[in-house]
Amino acid sequence: MLSPATAGWARLPPLAAYGTMHYLEFRGKAQMDLTLLSLPVAAKRIGMLNRWISLPIIAVTISILAPVSMAMSTKSHGGKVDATKNVPAATLVLVALRTEYKENPLGIDIRKPRLSWQIQSDRRGILQAAYQIQVARKEFDLRAGGAQQWDSGKVNSEESTQRVYAGPLLQSGQRYYWRVRVWDDRGEASPWSDPAFWEMGLLESSDWQASWIEPDLQEDVSRSQPAPLLRGTFKVNGAVQQARAYVTSHGLYQMHLNGQRVGDQVFTPGWTSYNKRLQYQTYDITNLLRSGENVLGVMLGDGWYRGNIGFGGQRNFYGEHLALLMQIQIKYADGHQQLIGSNQSWKAATGPVLMSEIYHGETYDARLEKNGWMSPNYEDKDWSGVKVVNHRKDNLIAPAGPPVRKIEELRPVKIIKTPAGETVIDMGQNMVGWVRIKAQGDSGNTITLHHAEVLDKEGNFYTANLRGAKQTVRYTLKGGGLETFEPHFTFQGFRYLAVEGYPGELTLDSVTGVVIHSDMSRAGQFETSNPLINQLQHNILWGQKGNFLDVPTDCPQRDERLGWTGDAQAFARTAAFNMDVAGFYTKWLKDVAADQLESGSVPYVIPDVLSRESKPAGGAAGWADAAVIIPWTMYLTYGDKRVLEEQYDSMSKWVEYMRRRAGDDYIWDGDYHFGDWLAFATTRPDYPGATTSKDLIATAFYAHSTDLMRRIALVLRKENDAAHYADLLGKIKTAFRREFVTERGRVGEDTQTAYTLALEFDLLPAELQKIAADRLARDVKERGHLTTGFLGTPYLCHVLGRYGHLAEAYLLLNREKYPSWLYPVKQGATTIWERWDGQKPDGSFQDQGMNSFNHYAYGAIGDWIYQVVAGIDVDPQAPGYQHIIIQPQPGGGLTRARASHNSLYGKVTSAWEIKDDRFELTVEIPANTRASVRLPGAALDKVTEGGEALAKGAGIANARQEGDSVIAEIGSGRYVFAYPRKAQQQ
Ligand code: BGC
User: Fold this and answer.
1) Which position among 114, 270, 292, 788 has the lowest Cβ density within 10 Å, counted as fewest Cβ atoms?
2) How does pLDDT run across 703-729, given as a tens digit for each residue?
3) Nearest CA to ligand 1 atom 4
4) Region class of 100: left (phi > 0), else alpha (psi between -120 and 50), else beta
5) Residue of 408, 313, 308 lying closest to 355 (CA atoms)
6) Where are the alpha helices (DSSP H) in 716-790?
7) Distance between CA atoms of 586 and 127, rounded to whole angstroms?
8) Distance, CA 624 to ligand 1 centroid (Å)?
């Protein structure tokens, strides 16, 4: 049995250990299906699978080859399992073809893209046995099966995700169509999938023929400037077959072609470590072109590039001047091509956006709009010119993550007159984005919109917690009709909107909330019988929506909105349950590596806008470890080995940095750390609060990242490195025990975080683990609440549950008073708060300097809710949900919980309900995966599946009793398990 602590992410160790073992047994069963095949095919398949053959299986294999049908029987504790029962002929359909996690992406720059697909079938227990991928430059050729760019041939492999393209070199701007077919474990072939495609971006800097241009305007770069307009024209002669625009900028851009917005992305080109990595976007503009004169109109905004970002009013972090790089490639029907680029001929002016800032809002004077500037015959004689500048092009990259878009719209719920006399609109939800406002009034009339997250205890508009961020949008009407306005280069974190200067009557119809975030598809759903927990999940999800804006930020409202590494790592696993974050983190991790300091230290925030050459801002325990923890999380949740390979250098540099800082005694002390940030504090003289020493925390995370490196090195088959990290880990553990653990199992300052980290990171000797866990549980029970901060909280319930203290974990989850997750819910929160007591029961606020109401870090409980309450987990031995662990652990008075997660293979569901003392668990497992299901409090002979004895269910193998639980190994399909609950479960 795996020791609880070494199981790490596998949470419930016994099952994790069985995961690998019964994986083999399950394979044994797959072999039995071979009787359906012809002998030669079967023989081949057995050859392919022979790495799975272990002794007990060999016997079965031989029997398969015998002429007598063995009735597909296999042994299990439950008796005979008939794998063919109720099995209709399978129809295999391939869907959800993805290239680098994206559906038909345009403009990628991965030279060996990875392909994934999902298999749908009505048969249980479907496994892929082989696949074939074909790639062609033309869809027609692909369908006709000719002129292949690449044909993988039939590859005997069960892998249906992360398949690497291995054909000839891919070319810039070229589209590649691909399709796939598979053979299942019975040798049945699927039809070819519908074709999907990917299209390459510009792969070499020499592909960029266009010039960087800067508007030649008089500017005072010491403060925010009017947004420049850039205008360029070109001619189209002939029938266009296809056209692409490749665009990027210093600062933000919005581009129009012939008056039509190009694409639907906002905040382009996104935020990266601009000096090293600058994203460009690829747009299909075929349908926006017209014959003859065409006009490009681009507006630039200060954005992260030169607007106020970071502390102390800092500006111009990346440079003082905005610039544009734009290239259009047109292919005509007759085969000739045309290339248009930003160049010297462009014109520049300023327009109606007088100021735009990430933190401060936008000021727009509609009277200054330049009518017709995006049309051909516009007179631009009085416009300024542009400067051609020699900015780098070798840092240009295609986005790995999803673009930021307007994702949804919210209707406001009420209009309030506050005691202070403000007119305030309540959006009903703390949201991130802006409002679209409609108004009709006199020219020159200015509407001012202030944004706030909360009202104070008197019910007045409260902005003190925004610190320096003004979050103010001003719109001056041009007059003469109904006007509609949305800001361009700013976003606000808010629920309440104070409106000044609105002409006429302000109604709920006057404004619409526009929610923006990185366009990640929704992957997870969660619901229980407790509406407060459901609201908590809602708040976690909205915390994610609000803080995934190309970069994982701490908060979206005050003068911060930075990629704080600690917050990111704490929330990453939860994020990966809720949404498809694979591309999003892939992109950000490259910025982590890019901004990592020579020393190996990882900055506090990524992109790093806080370090100065003389004073690097980085190297904090639990923050910088994001460099290791997040790639590992990506590996667990998407089976992504490439991210481990590509981040390996960065990760190992970080561990090496810690090794140097800690020195020969392996205790990392002395450096600056944030510690267990915002942990429970009191003013009680006998209990000052729960401060865990920073030395303990730093040494614990040093061990944890070293341990993850050890595992990562093993995954990548770097055995020497793995041995090195194992050795280092041993030394850190010994030092940790010597320094922080007493013989009686007291850890550090006896705080919840000290025990939690020591147990989660497996730092205690086996004989002290239970003692320490009991001490932790006692503390929780005695206080009745948690005392942890950013670093302890994500692991607290996991540790309690894993060591037999599930009741205490549920006690924490269910608690409704401060400090707890449900306290903010009871206070009406619609997002996760930065602090346990952001707003106190009497309505007063925490310190205004540090009091965000949309900070996802404490939302990390979501991961426990999915993994333990609902019971969906991954197996590190077969990650990415290839082997799924289903192990719900009901408790806390809940009568039902239902979660689902869209993995790369398809939908995983675990839904349980307690009805009349019966426990019913519905499980859905996608094709080409398998799962180990643990049924808590069950007796093997009492469990039914689909109304029949468990042993009779198709797709179920090796059902067995293990202590209080029944374990069943299952293949893909939908299963409904039911049984009377054992007394101790109730
Ligand atoms: C941020 C945090 C961050 C912290 C570092 C704060 O200002 O909002 O979430 O991790 O600084 O301790």
Assistant:
1) 292
2) 999 999 999 999 999 999 999 999 999
3) 564
4) left
5) 308
6) 719-740, 752-760, 766-783
7) 29
8) 13
